[in-house]
Amino acid sequence: MYKYFLKYRYSLLITVLLRLISSGMQVYIAIVLQKLVDYITTQDMTGFFTYILFTSFYFLSFGIIEYLKNVAKAYFLKKSMAEYKNDIFNSLISRDYNSFNEAGTAGYISYLTNDVNIIENQYISSYIELIGDITIFILTIAVLLYINPWVTISLLISGLLLFLVPYLFSKPLQKLQNIVSDNFSSYTKILKDQLDGYSTIHSYNMEDKTKKEVKNVNMTLELSRLKFLKFQAIFSGISTTLGISTLVISIIISGYFVIIGTLSAGSLIAVIQLSNGITYPLQAIVQRITLIKSSKIINEKLLKIITQNNYKIERKKADYFHNVIEFKNVSFSYLEKEKILNNFSFQFYKNKKYLIVGKSGSGKSTLFRLLIGYYNNYTGDIYIDNKSIKAIDTKSICNDISLVQQNIYLFNKSIKDNITLNKAFDETLFNSIINKSGLLDVITSLPMGIDTIIEEDAKNISGGQKQRIGIARALYHEKNILLLDEWTAALDIDSSLNIEQDILLNIDATVISITHKLNQNILSIYDEIIVIDKGRIIEHGSFKSLLVKRGYLYDLFRKDNENTLGIS
Q1: Domain total of the chain
Q2: 425-460 pLDDT tens trace
Q3: What is the pTM of this model?
Q4: Separation of alpha carbons 139 and 29, rounded Å
Q5: Which helix (H) or strand (E) segment is 403 a member of?
Q6: Which domain holds residue 355?
Q7: How far is CA 280 from CA 17, 55, 130, 137, in A?
Q8: What does the angle CA 60 – CA 63 – CA 67 come to, to the nearest 5 degrees?
Q9: Residue 449 lies in a domain
Q10: Axis-axis angle for helices 493-506, 427-436 (nearest 10)
């Protein structure tokens, strides 16, 4: 956290300086009141009116300083918290696939909202305000010693009892604060899960069950917050009682000295005012120290996220793909007992078109996930131009690969931005891609055309339109390797055939496609078809050679087409 303090040290320095000036002026209010009352009790009319002018100017100046202090603090918090949140987000988005999925997006949203707010309000702000509280306390002691040492000693003895409170309450509060943070994360997760599953919930009449589940998690969160607030209330009650006791003691002792004639009435007013300069700062110091300690675990958790990616293994950057992708004796499993890929070996050559077919769960999509670096806990090896991808930076691998999946993710941005992403807009290329992906009619029918904003969860476009945008995105980026995973599943048969045929015949790239649609015209375009079952290659070759062989592909093709082609 000190990194953010140091980076914006000038902004912090101005904030602290104004806080110190404000604290000093706050203490001096007691002297102002003392002199004002003394002028009244001595019936000095001239001095009284003159001091009224000074008092008016003083309080106006105090108000200006308070305003500047709060503005400076707001600017410092804006700068430091913006970078703090950016660092958390940047670290999360830079994680590898396995690490990113450990907590889930709902957990990360909780980190970046609830937890960050705790750090801002209970950690950083408390540190800044603590400086002023300590200043007020020290200056108050100095002024009180000048007025009357005995009053000062009595106030100190009663006031210092407040310092016992943090030692009694900080650890329990810290524990309860952490429980609230964890429960808030759980609540965010279930809310996201249930709201994302709205269609399924209504389709299967799960409303009552869903409401009950959310209610239970919400109740757990609120009960943990109640425990925290109740404990905090006990802490605040004890602090307030001790503070009032200190004020009462100061009045009793000061009153005694007024009665015996060693203190003036103005000094009594000053002591009462200054007693607040002991009780309030001590209460505030105790509360702020407790809040800082209670939020320390959350801060450490967030800082750990930020620093986690600073120790990544240095890997080489990949060159552009030139020759061959090779899977060599690759085995992989999501669960230890069940192998999804089992000693898989194959070579994919540049600018060839490959189709992978097989039953669901046979390992087809897993090949893509391994190639783009989602997982690296496989045995065997994967090479791009004889370089193991375990030694290559994942980002540089993805620079040469476009992946089109069945479930396309679209951002809450324009159609144009969803296609171009981080690549500069090229109107000629863009228009060409729009035609190839079958998006032209869709875009011309929209009032805003390519500037139409995709709403949250893409609810303003159909599944087919969504898939076309995903296809256009992959084609626009013109990468050397195109991975297509059930990429036309949401399109009707005619559109699917037209787009697939046009792309396969005209694209200058290595294409590896996965599909369940076994159409003769499309299958004939592929240079090689690879049939997988239980993570192994059963057979491979051209469509024609595999039909002649009458093996696994022949059986799959016959089942799909016997009604339309009369194959027997």
Answers
A1: 2
A2: 999 999 999 988 888 888 998 889 999 998 877 888
A3: 0.72
A4: 12
A5: strand 401-404
A6: 315-400+483-490+510-568
A7: 21, 23, 12, 9
A8: 140
A9: no
A10: 130
